[in-house]
Recover the amino acids of this structure.
């Protein structure tokens, strides 16, 4: 969750609030994995519903939730879900997502 504005000056917008939340989430996820925990961010939810149900004040945003916990023996999961948990992750090559020498270079 992050605020639109600074805590000490609610009239002053904080344009970096979402970035700071993302950095915090990244640190939390890395540390969780380093400690052998399972961690899954979730962005596909009804933010307005959540804010209303939890009574979160105006000016706050909840762009992500995080499920964090210990791995347990899988019970009640379908076969494809278990396979999905254990499957080798395929990641895009770095140069396919971070291309500093490509199309943007003509603008610098
Ligand atoms: C910002 C963000 C939002 C996500 N939102 C959802 C979501 O709403 N529903 C969902 O099933 N998975 C969502 N995911 C993906 C799951 O968290 C997924 O388990 C995870 O990215 C898999 O990571 P892994 O391949 O390293 O295990 C989201 C991932 C990110 C990074």
């Amino acid at each position: 969750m992050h605020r639109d504005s600074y805590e000490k000056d609610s009239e002053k917008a904080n344009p970096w609030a979402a970035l700071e939340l993302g950095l915090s989430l990244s640190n939390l996820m890395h540390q969780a994995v380093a400690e052998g925990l399972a961690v899954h961010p979730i962005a596909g939810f009804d933010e307005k519903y959540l804010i209303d149900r939890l009574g979160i004040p105006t000016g706050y945003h909840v762009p992500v939730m995080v499920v964090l916990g210990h791995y347990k023996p899988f019970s009640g999961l379908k076969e494809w879900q278990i396979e999905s948990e254990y499957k080798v992750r395929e990641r895009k090559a770095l140069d396919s997502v971070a291309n500093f020498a490509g199309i943007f270079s003509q603008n610098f």
